[in-house]
C-alpha cells in the first residue's frame, strides 16, 4: 500500500447483519442473510464451496465445523443463529468421531473384541446424555451421570466399574483431559461364589446331550476347564494326543497355555472326527471357514439344562467352575489349577476353596447331635403331630 493511501475500514461487529444457518441438501447448509457487500465478499472468498442460490435466495455452504468456525470468527457467536437440527447433527457427528477414534485406540492396544464392545457401548451411552461440547464437561457432571445411572438402573458394581474404566480411557486417549477423573471413586465390590455342579449333575448334563458334536464340545469344556470362547476357537492342530495336552491359544488376556486332554475326551474326539471330518476348526460353524459361535454353545447348554431340570444358574461357564472345584476336591494343588485355568493371580483361583467340599465335608453340623422329632410323623398309637400314648 502506498504511503498516504487510506487504510480500508473493516465493518464493525455490531454493523454486521445477523445470519440464519439451516439444513440444506445432504452435506450443505443454507445461509439466509440480508445483503451486505463486505459479508458477501467474505463468504465467496473465505469459505470454499460457497455459492449463491438464485432461486432460493440463500447462500449454500459445505456443512462442517470449519464452516461454522469461519462464520463465528467473522460475525461473532451472538450474530450466528443456528437451527437446532444443525446443532443436533453436529453433536451426532462429533459423537461419531469420538467413538471412531476411541475404537481405533482400543484396537491399536489390542483389547479383546468383547472388551471393545463393552467399552464402546459404555462410551456411547455416556456421550448421548450430554448436549454440550465434551471438552467443557466437568468432574461434577460426570459424577452426576454415574450417580443417576446407579440410582435409575440399579446396575451391578461390575457394570459400573466397566463404565468408569471406559470413560477414563476416553478422556485420557481422545479428549486429552485425564485429570477430570483422577479422583473418581470405584464401586465397592462384593464376593460372588461361582455356581458349581456336583459330579452326578455334571454326569447327567454330559449324558443328556444327544448330538455327538455337542457332547464332545461339552466334555472338552468340563475335562479341560475351557471357557466357551476358547473351546469354539480350538483348531485340530491344538490337540496333542501324545502328551495328552490341549494348547489354548490367545485365551483371556491374549495368553497361551496348556491344559488337560483326558483319555475320555480323546476317545470322544476320535469318534467325532471320524464322523464329522473337521479340517481347520475342531468345531466348524454353519458358515464356511468359520467356527461355531459362542451363542450356539450357550443355547445347547440351555437346552440340556432344561432337559435335566437344573436351575438357571447353570451356564456354559459352570462346567469350567466345576472342573476347578472337582480338581481341588481330588487333592490337586491350587497352583496347578491356576495354571490349567490360565489365571494371572492365585487370588482368582482361591475362590474355589470356598465352594469345595474337600474340607467342608469333614465338618459335622452341631444339629447332628440333637434328637429332633420330625413334625407330621405318625407314631404307634398316635396320629400326626401328636405324641404317642
Task: Describe this protein's structure.
By secondary structure, the protein is α+β, with helices and mostly antiparallel strands. It has 3 domains: 15-82, 3-Layer(aba) Sandwich (MutS, DNA mismatch repair protein, domain I); 90-181, DNA polymerase, domain 1 (Orthogonal Bundle); 199-360, Intergrase catalytic core (hpI Integrase, Chain A), CATH 1.10.443.10. The chain contains 15 helices and 8 strands. Strands 3-4-2-1-5 form a 5-stranded mixed β-sheet. Strands 6-7-8 form a 3-stranded antiparallel β-sheet. Helix 3 (84-108) runs antiparallel to helix 4. The longest helix has 25 residues, at 84-108. The termini are far apart. Residues 1-13 have low confidence and may be disordered.
Keywords for this structure?
5-stranded mixed beta sheet, 15 helices, alpha+beta, 8% strand, 389 residues, 3-stranded antiparallel beta sheet, hpI Integrase, Chain A, disordered N terminus, DNA polymerase, domain 1, MutS, DNA mismatch repair protein, domain I
Amino acid at each position: 500500500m502506498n504511503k498516504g493511501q487510506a487504510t480500508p475500514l473493516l465493518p464493525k461487529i455490531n454493523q454486521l447483519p445477523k445470519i440464519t444457518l439451516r439444513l440444506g441438501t445432504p452435506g450443505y447448509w443454507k445461509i439466509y442473510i440480508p445483503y451486505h457487500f463486505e459479508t458477501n465478499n467474505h463468504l465467496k472468498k473465505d469459505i470454499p464451496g460457497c455459492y449463491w442460490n438464485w432461486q432460493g435466495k440463500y447462500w449454500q455452504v459445505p456443512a462442517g465445523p470449519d464452516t461454522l468456525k469461519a462464520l463465528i470468527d467473522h460475525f461473532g457467536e451472538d450474530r450466528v443463529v443456528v437451527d437446532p437440527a444443525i446443532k443436533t447433527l453436529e453433536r451426532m457427528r462429533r459423537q461419531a468421531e469420538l467413538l471412531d477414534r476411541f475404537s481405533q485406540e482400543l484396537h491399536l492396544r489390542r483389547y479383546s473384541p468383547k472388551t471393545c464392545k463393552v467399552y464402546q457401548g459404555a462410551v456411547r451411552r455416556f456421550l448421548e446424555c450430554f448436549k454440550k461440547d465434551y471438552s467443557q464437561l466437568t468432574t461434577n457432571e460426570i459424577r452426576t451421570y454415574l450417580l443417576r445411572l446407579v440410582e435409575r438402573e440399579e446396575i451391578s458394581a461390575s457394570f459400573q466399574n466397566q463404565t468408569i474404566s471406559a470413560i477414563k480411557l476416553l478422556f485420557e486417549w481422545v479428549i486429552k483431559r485425564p485429570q477430570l477423573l483422577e479422583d473418581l471413586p470405584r464401586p465397592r465390590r462384593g464376593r460372588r461364589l461361582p455356581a458349581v455342579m456336583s459330579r452326578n449333575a455334571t454326569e447327567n448334563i454330559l449324558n443328556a446331550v444327544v448330538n455327538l458334536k455337542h457332547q464332545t464340545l461339552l466334555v472338552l469344556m468340563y475335562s479341560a476347564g475351557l471357557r466357551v470362547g476358547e473351546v469354539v476357537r480350538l483348531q485340530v492342530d491344538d490337540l496333542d494326543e501324545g502328551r495328552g495336552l490341549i494348547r489354548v491359544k490367545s485365551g483371556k488376556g491374549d495368553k497361551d497355555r496348556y491344559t488337560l486332554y483326558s483319555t475320555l475326551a480323546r476317545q470322544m474326539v476320535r469318534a467325532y472326527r471320524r464322523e464329522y471330518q473337521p479340517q481347520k476348526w475342531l468345531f466348524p460353524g454353519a458358515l464356511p471357514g468359520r467356527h461355531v459361535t459362542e451363542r450356539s454353545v450357550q443355547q445347547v447348554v440351555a437346552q440340556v439344562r432344561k432337559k435335566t431340570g437344573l436351575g438357571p444358574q447353570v451356564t456354559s461357564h459352570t462346567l469350567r467352575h466345576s472342573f476347578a472345584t472337582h480338581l481341588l476336591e481330588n487333592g490337586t494343588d491350587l497352583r496347578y489349577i491356576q495354571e490349567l485355568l490360565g489365571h494371572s493371580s492365585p487370588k482368582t483361583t482361591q475362590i474355589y476353596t470356598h465352594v469345595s467340599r474337600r474340607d467342608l465335608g469333614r465338618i459335622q453340623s452341631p444339629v447332628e447331635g440333637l434328637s429332633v422329632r420330625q413334625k407330621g410323623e405318625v407314631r404307634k398309637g398316635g396320629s400326626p403331630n401328636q405324641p404317642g400314648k
